[in-house]
């Protein structure tokens, strides 16, 4: 997961807004060691338990370290020396800047990537970003958040009713570089269904705070993900994750498959594929892979290993031509090319390099990678199946290659999508019902505070979570239209 600052907005009334960036992200999942002896202010070196992660050779710019936990008094961010090698004998790291504070033995030392935060704003989530200050704001390690007072409200500055704030980490220590941008946060604050608001409601309702030790952002994020995954995997399908009329690509002449979207749930089966169609034509019927194999018997298929040019190429090269006849008509993108094997060749060249004895009528060329067949008839596919190729990608496979008459038409799919994760506090959940996640987080926080002694299943908040989740699932069932049609087509009735 990329290291991004989580941000929040505090509206102070009028045009004053304060934008906060969470500093605790700096040390999350970073390499950490500990001091092996006390150090005093103005010292220029530290001795640590392990040199793992520290650069063993002299570098041009050194590294950034945080001595102490983010948010603790006297914690500080410093740079290691760029001209002094590590002392492996004493596991000693030389600092470019002298220590500002005393630090006792066993103080944590983190190797981090950033020492500043840059704040920007934009009219829309995808609009051009503009800086709020001339330079990024230096991070104070003894504060859990870095903040910026925006006295001229962003929206006013842009001439808009509303706007969005963004932040990213930056460093001028090792080089001038930056992290990716955070998700944009609405100038009026987070949406009610955002990750930030759900976590905030749970923590504050218990009178707790994110302390970076027991109640951490990582713990809250993992707990929220657990709850979302449990809801997603409950019996049935979540109606709001059904997608219809999704354009998954364009029809190409001679194509016999198309890759499934990456957000299909269980993409290696057709379980969650509701429909596949080309243009305004009817949905294809699903059929089993064995039936597909029967339709494609005696119809070898591969791809062109090299481009083909009309009346210029003297042979065509196939990726794997072992299944093709010694004298064959190779069909590429609806065009038939007569070929024969070349006597005297050996190995793969004998099978894959085929001499052309008959070019198609008119000018024609095909690029490398184009599908190549033998003994096929092109048309409008009316059946499909689904499976994964040996490389692991999942495809929809048609019962026949697509004819030229349908080229460039859209290929649509209806399917059930995966549970989408999140990587920042500004991300919003796609669930229409989300308040019950607050109950789940409250129960998990209490369990964590009890050091695991609380039986969470007996907790009132956990029971409330289960009750609300059950109601949500029941409402999904009731809102789904069920239509039963008797199969009477086989019956005859007197006239």
| Rg measurement, Å | 31 Å
Query: What portion of residues belong to β-strands?
Result: 25-35%
Helix content: 10-25%
Q: Please state the overall shape, judged from the principal axes of the Cα atoms.
A: extended
Could you walk me through the main structural features you see in this protein, from its secondary elements to its overall organization?
The structure is a single chain. Among the domains are: 7-25 and 115-189, Immunoglobulins (Immunoglobulin-like), CATH 2.60.40.10; 205-235 and 431-477, no CATH class; 240-297 and 378-416, no CATH class; 301-374. It contains seven helices and 30 strands. It has helices at residues 154-158, 195-205, 217-232, 289-295, 347-352, 436-449, 460-479; strands at residues 7-11, 17-22, 32-34, 45-47, 64-67, 76-79, 92-94, 108-112, 116-122, 130-131, 137-138, 145-150, 164-171, 177-178, 185-186, 242-250, 257-259, 273-278, 285-286, 301-303, 308-309, 315-317, 327-332, 335-341, 353-358, 365-366, 371-374, 383-388, 394-398, 410-416.
Pick out its properties.
six-stranded antiparallel β-sheet, 495 residues, extended, Immunoglobulin-like, 7 helices, alpha+beta
């Amino acid at each position: 997961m990329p290291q991004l600052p989580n941000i929040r907005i505090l509206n102070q009334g009028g045009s004053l807004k304060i934008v906060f960036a969470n500093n605790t992200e700096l040390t999350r999942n970073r390499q950490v060691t500990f001091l092996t002896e006390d150090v005093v202010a103005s010292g220029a070196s530290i001795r640590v338990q392990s040199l793992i992660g520290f650069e063993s050779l002299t570098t041009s710019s050194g590294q950034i370290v945080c001595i102490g936990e983010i948010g603790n008094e006297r914690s500080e961010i410093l740079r290691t020396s760029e001209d002094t090698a590590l002392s492996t004998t004493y596991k000693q790291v030389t600092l470019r800047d002298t220590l500002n504070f005393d630090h006792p033995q066993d103080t944590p030392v983190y190797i981090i990537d950033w020492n500043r935060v840059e704040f920007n704003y934009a009219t829309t989530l995808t609009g051009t970003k503009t800086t709020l200050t001339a330079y990024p704001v230096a991070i104070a390690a003894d504060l859990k958040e870095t903040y910026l007072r925006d006295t001229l409200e962003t929206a006013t500055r842009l001439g808009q009713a509303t706007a969005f704030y963004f932040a990213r980490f930056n460093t001028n220590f090792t080089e001038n570089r930056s992290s990716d941008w955070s998700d944009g946060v609405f100038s009026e604050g987070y949406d009610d269904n955002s990750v930030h608001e759900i976590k905030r409601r749970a923590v504050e309702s218990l009178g707790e705070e994110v302390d970076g030790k027991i109640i951490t952002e990582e713990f809250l994020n993992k707990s929220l993900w657990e709850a979302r995954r449990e809801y997603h995997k409950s019996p049935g399908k979540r109606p709001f994750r059904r997608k219809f009329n999704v354009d998954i690509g364009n029809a190409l002449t001679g194509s016999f498959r198309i890759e499934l979207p990456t957000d299909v749930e269980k993409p290696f089966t057709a379980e969650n594929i509701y429909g596949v169609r080309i243009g305004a034509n009817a949905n294809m019927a699903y059929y089993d892979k064995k039936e597909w194999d029967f339709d494609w018997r005696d119809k070898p298929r591969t791809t062109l290993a090299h481009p083909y040019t009309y009346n210029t190429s003297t042979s065509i090269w196939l990726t794997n031509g072992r299944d093709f006849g010694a004298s064959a008509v190779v069909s590429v993108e609806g065009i038939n090319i007569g070929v024969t094997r070349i006597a005297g060749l050996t190995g793969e060249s004998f099978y894959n390099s085929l001499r052309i004895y008959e070019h198609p009528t008119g000018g024609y060329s095909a690029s490398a990678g184009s599908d190549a067949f033998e003994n096929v008839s092109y048309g409008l596919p009316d059946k499909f199946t689904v499976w994964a190729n040996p490389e692991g990608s999942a495809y929809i496979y048609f019962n026949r290659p697509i004819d030229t008459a349908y080229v460039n038409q859209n290929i649509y799919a209806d399917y059930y999508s995966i549970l989408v994760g999140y990587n920042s506090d500004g991300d919003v959940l796609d669930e229409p019902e989300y308040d019950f996640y607050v109950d789940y987080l409250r129960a998990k926080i209490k369990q964590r505070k009890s050091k695991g002694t609380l039986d969470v299943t007996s907790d009132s908040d956990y029971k409330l979570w289960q009750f609300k989740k059950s109601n949500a699932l029941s409402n999904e069932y009731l809102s789904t239209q069920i239509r039963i049609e008797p199969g009477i087509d086989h019956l005859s009735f007197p006239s």
